Amino acid sequence: MSVPIHQQHEATRPFPTGPFNAITWGWTGIRGTWTTPAARASVKHMAALGPNWVVLAYAALQDNAQSTSIQWRDSPTVTDEEIVEAAGMARELGMRVCLKPIVNCADGTWRAHIGFFDTDVPGEPTWDEWFDAYDEFIVHHAALAESVGAELFSIGCEMVRADARADRWRGLVAKVRAVYSGPITYNCDKYQEERVTWWNAVDVISSSGYYPTGTWDEHLARIAPVVSLHQKPFVFLEAGCPSRDTSPSRPNDWSLVGEPSGTAQAEYLDEMLTAVEATPWVRGVALWDWPANLYPAHAAATNSDYCMYAKPGADVVTRHFAG
Q1: Per-residue pLDDT tens for 203-224?
Q2: Please, what is the end-to-end C-alpha distance for the chain in angstroms?
Q3: Where are the domains positioned within the chain?
Q4: CATH number of 20-322
């Protein structure tokens, strides 16, 4: 008799103890931007907020959502050497490291829409062709994570249509475990936490917590049974809010039109971090995001992106991370 998935207990690699107070650095990982004096200054400014983790997030490109080739060795993706140097900069400043390789579509289609026919059709691209290319990309960077001693490795981010291919994800986890000895996570998209059926294959459950202002208690209550069922550590591997007056109601939308507002961002971050800190099963948040090439401090008031540098949100984050 087969054992139901929710009753399976796969071995879990331990996740480091303590809070996960993280900031995502370097997105989108453009080649040539991670080893400059500006990049080193950016990491130091980020460290001033008190994170004890950094998530190094970088993207490789495929042409469109139906491509089965991923050009991860080519520009604009950062090189292995750049990733090694960025990890070293973070370690010099006392931060643990999570590597987070991501695939994007060159035509601008969001990666969540990467997908293929459920049943293979001759002459059409297939899931297996895509996963073969994706596995190669991820396993290479898992080996790199091992070489830099990364304390966490993410095998994917917000791959909503691909989430249902449970057997391929489980196979990828097995390949990653063969080259990387640390804990593994998968960063599902917002609202998808209970839809992923293979959480027991990874060591840490994570998601993108871009939930509208006023709804954090509701969504934490919805996610709680997933964490309880699988008995795994949980983090929000992405969460944040652009500094625009419209963004707290739709923090996932980086293209939402609005006026720059550091106050709106700060209030959202305070609400989110307060809710998370009051939830014992949430280990923490990786705030999105901090670029390798920062805008000047005097331009912060007109900058409407996610970064908190020189904005009221920086003080909010510093206070919560210190608590």
Answers
A1: 999 999 999 999 999 999 999 9
A2: 49
A3: 20-322
A4: 3.20.20.80
